[in-house]
Amino acid sequence: MDNDKLPQGSSAPRAPGSTTPGGGNGPGSSTPAAEPFTSGMTTGATLLTIFAPFIALIVALMMHGSERDPARRSFLRSWATVAGVVTGVEVIIGIVLVTAVLASGPKVDHSGPCVGGPQIGAAGTPLGGGRYRFPCVSGGSAVVRFQDATGPTS
């Protein structure tokens, strides 16, 4: 039967097991159509994307470059997109966590009241009149007055 004389809405005859007209991957091809990826391969791709998304991205792009079947290429393109998004999300989460850890270090405010007592061995800042300001262990500062050997000063 000639393809020009087919009724409208019908397609060209197909070879057994073929998914495209003419029995192959492209117009006029005589090779059988490639089967889609098995469920085991899809499960493996999903697990790799969850646990190692950067490697999954590389694998998907490498396989996409050598694949000829449009259905498989579409799957590989989608897999690469999802793996790329997951990789980006993990990088953002990593940056946020590192920033939070680095920003949560001890903060000592030496301008408030003394907390934890004066630091042992810390140098005091002279304020005049025998008074010195010493930093405290957990924040704040303490002003200490030292007297001369001659007696108290008023």
Q: Order of SSEs, N→C? A: HHHEEE
Distance between the termini: 121 Å
- Poorly predicted runs are 20-25
Question: How large a portion of the residues is in β-strands, by DSSP E?
Answer: 5-15%
Number of domains: 2
The number of helices is 3
Assembly state here?
single chain
Q: Tell me how many strands there are.
A: 3
- Computed over alpha carbons, the radius of gyration is 38 Å
Question: Helical amount among residues, as a percent range?
Answer: 25-40%
3D architecture notes:
With 154 residues, the chain is mainly α. The chain has two domains: 40-105; 107-149, no CATH class. It has helices spanning 39-51, 53-66, 70-103, and strands at residues 125-128, 131-135, 141-145. It has a three-stranded antiparallel sheet with strand order 1-2-3, with no helix packed on it.
Key features?
single chain; 154 residues; mainly alpha; 3 helices; 40% helix
Summarize the entry for a quick read.
The protein has 154 residues and is mostly helical. Helices cover 40% and strands 9% of the residues. The model is unreliable at 20-25 (pLDDT under 50).
SSE blueprint:
Blueprint: H1 39-51, H2 53-66, H3 70-103, E1 125-128, E2 131-135, E3 141-145
Antiparallel strand pairs: 1-2, 2-3
